[in-house]
From TrEMBL:
Residues 94-307 form the ABC transmembrane type-1 domain. The keyword ATP-binding does not apply. The chain crosses the membrane at residues 37-63, 98-119, 131-149, 179-203, 224-243, 255-277, 289-309. The keyword Transmembrane applies. Its main location: membrane. PROSITE patterns: ABC_TM1 (PS50928). It comes from Rhizobium hidalgonense. It is a multi-pass membrane protein. GO terms for cellular component: plasma membrane. This is Sugar ABC transporter permease.
């Protein structure tokens, strides 16, 4: 005999009671959290609709042959095998990108730290200087600045005009395969404002009495920098290094504008992202471009994981 049949008249069954309790708990939770979820709704839509969803779709497309005109055709690991064994432009793009990362990130961080230390000396009008030095970070990734940079380093540009006053005949920097990558490195270093602001905040957190005690002990400025500033600033250096490395791997606009979208001359400015763009929207190999994109994700993940694993040996925290 069922519980409902054994329940006396007018009594509530166990199942009904548990359902009512669960429904009441759900209503209380919803009434308490509904405003928060409503405020989060735009972010949730953007995350699932514009980030997670497209990422999962691109992961599927990386295993297909898809030209955006016909339905995707499953090819398994063929795209990844081709990347690893039969694509010389992939190797060229990786070489250019790694060169750019290795050169631009250390120089940018060093220059940003140098400027931050200069601003940390108690200059008047410090907020104005911060805004001025931060401005290139806001403008540096734009198309207009890339066009301006191309004009500066052209054969008849301002850089060669300045060199001519000293009797130096400069080359066409952007059209010479030996120099073109360095113009992009210089553009990256010019965008030092963002890490500079973070370095300045880190310098402001170092107690001044440590420098005073070191001065009383006869420590030089260089020794104070090496023994006090650098060790206490390593968490900030680590953060800036990781962020700037990821940004360097994702650089696209300067190489696209300066090379006219070709990556030339002789693939000397063929950034990985530019090659990915060419495969996707130039050659309409969307499946292959998706595989390239996931290889880039893996490369960035490996570099980031390596940075975190090695940070225990050189990053010093308060404890």
């Amino acid at each position: 005999m069922s519980n409902a049949m054994r329940t006396p008249a007018g009594a509530i069954s166990v199942e009904s009671y548990q359902g009512a309790v669960a429904e009441g708990r759900f209503k209380r939770l919803w009434n308490a959290n509904a405003p928060g979820y409503l405020f989060l709704l735009p972010w949730l839509v953007g995350f699932f609709g514009l980030t997670l969803g497209p990422a999962l779709i691109s992961l599927y497309l990386s295993f297909t042959d898809f030209d955006m005109l016909q339905s995707p055709r499953w090819v398994g690991l063929a795209n990844y095998v081709r990347i690893a064994t039969a694509d010389p432009k992939f190797s060229a793009a990786m070489h250019v990108t790694l060169t750019y990362v290795v050169l631009s990130v250390p120089f940018k961080l060093a220059f940003a730290l140098l400027v931050a230390m200069a601003l940390n000396r108690g200059l008047r009008g410090l907020p104005i200087y911060r805004a001025i030095f931060y401005l290139p970070s806001l403008l540096g990734g734009s198309v207009a600045i890339a066009v301006l940079w191309r004009q500066l380093f052209a054969s008849d540009g301002l850089v060669n005009a300045a060199l001519s006053h000293f009797g130096i005949e400069g080359p066409s920097w952007i059209s010479h395969p030996n120099y073109s990558i360095y113009t992009l490195v210089a553009l990256s270093v010019w965008q030092f404002g963002s890490p500079m602001i973070i370095f300045l905040a880190g310098l402001r957190q170092i107690p001044q009495d440590m420098y005073e005690a070191a001065s009383l002990d006869g420590a030089s400025k260089f020794r104070q920098f090496y023994k006090i500033t650098l060790p206490l600033l390593t968490p900030v250096i680590f953060f800036n290094a990781v962020v700037q490395t990821i940004d360097a791997f994702k650089a696209f606009t300067p190489a696209f504008i300066i090379s006219g979208g070709t990556g030339g001359p002789i693939n000397s400015t063929l950034f990985y992202t530019l090659y990915l763009y060419q495969e996707a929207f130039g050659n309409f190999r969307m499946g292959y471009a998706s595989a390239l994109a996931w290889i880039l994700v893996l490369i960035i993940a490996v570099f980031t994981a390596f940075s975190f694993l090695t940070s225990r040996y050189w990053v010093h925290y308060d404890d």
